[in-house]
Design brief:
The chain is mainly alpha-helical. Helix content is 64%, strand content 0%. It has one domain. Pfam families: Dimer_Tnp_Tn5.
C-alpha cells in the first residue's frame, strides 16, 4: 500500500478499525457463549476456509 498521502491513509485506517472491532467482538462473544456454533456469526464458506487453514484438513460435515 502506498500511504504517503492522507486521502489514502484515512480509508485504510477505517477499514482496519472495522476489522479490529469485529475481532474484538468475536473474542468477547466467544468468552460469553463458548458453546455457540460458529455458523451463527460466519457464513458456511468462511468457517470452512478458516478450519482448513487452521487444522490442515477438510472441515467436518
Amino acid at each position: 500500500m502506498q500511504l504517503e498521502k492522507l486521502e489514502r491513509l484515512e480509508p485504510t485506517l477505517a477499514f482496519y478499525m472495522i476489522i479490529a472491532w469485529r475481532v474484538l467482538y468475536l473474542t468477547l462473544l466467544g468468552r460469553e457463549c463458548p458453546e455457540m456454533p460458529c455458523d451463527v456469526v460466519f457464513a458456511e464458506k468462511e468457517w470452512q476456509t478458516i478450519y482448513i487453514v487452521a487444522k490442515c484438513k477438510p472441515p467436518p460435515e
